[in-house]
Design brief:
Length: 205
């Protein structure tokens, strides 16, 4: 992949940065991973605390193990009606559910897995701006990503695999690699339906 030909502007990146769940097996150069992370750390955080931490996983055995944990968490979420925070999984169309299941079986093969952590509890609002920077920066370089949270349901096991201290909170996981499917455009409701000027307009709903 030629980096120079892959780069796109920030608005095109945001308009086409779809969730990628199919990847090529080609490795991602370390310098591109570093470039993406350097964009992530530029995001704002409360009191400039810079609480986000990133564990980049390229080792095949560690990726395989994290893949197993992800699949185990997903299967539990699908099969356990009482699983907290996973109701949305069971309300999706069958085709979407199957795509998600297929991705869960293959996530360990994605060339890069980034586990995003926080040094403080209760400050997710200071972590997700960095995550969004990461996603958009990756897209600008032609790299695919998808925001995942199922590793948080196996936080203790993930800590053991990666040597993450117990006082560090695992926030999300981001697979990253060269996409095997096209980028966007993404389908979203138009601004006219979701934005209000000066006061709430009930007719939008």
């Amino acid at each position: 992949m030629n980096q120079a030909t892959a780069e796109v502007g920030v608005f095109e990146a945001m308009h086409t940065q779809r969730a990628i769940r199919r990847y090529r097996t080609d490795p991602v150069p370390d310098e591109l991973v570093t470039q993406v992370l350097d964009a992530a750390i530029r995001a704002p955080s409360a009191i400039n605390g810079q609480f986000a931490r990133f564990v980049v996983v390229t080792d095949p055995e560690k990726r395989r193990r994290l893949g197993e944990l992800y699949l185990d968490a997903q299967e539990e979420a699908y099969n356990n009606p009482a699983a907290a925070g996973t109701e949305w999984l069971r309300n999706q169309e069958a085709a979407i559910v199957e795509k998600a299941a297929k991705f869960a079986r293959e996530i360990g093969d994605v060339p890069v897995l980034i586990i995003v952590c926080s040094t403080q509890r209760g400050v997710s609002h200071s972590i997700f701006p960095a995550v969004q920077n990461l996603l958009v920066a990756a897209r600008s370089l032609g790299l695919g990503t998808v925001l995942t949270t199922l590793h948080t349901f196996r936080a203790d096991e993930v800590r053991e695999v990666l040597g993450i201290p117990n006082d560090i909170r695992i926030v999300c996981g981001i697979p990253m690699g060269w996409p095997a499917v096209p980028f966007g455009p993404v389908r979203r409701r138009p601004v006219s339906e979701v934005a209000y000027w000066n006061q709430w307009e009930d007719q939008h709903d």
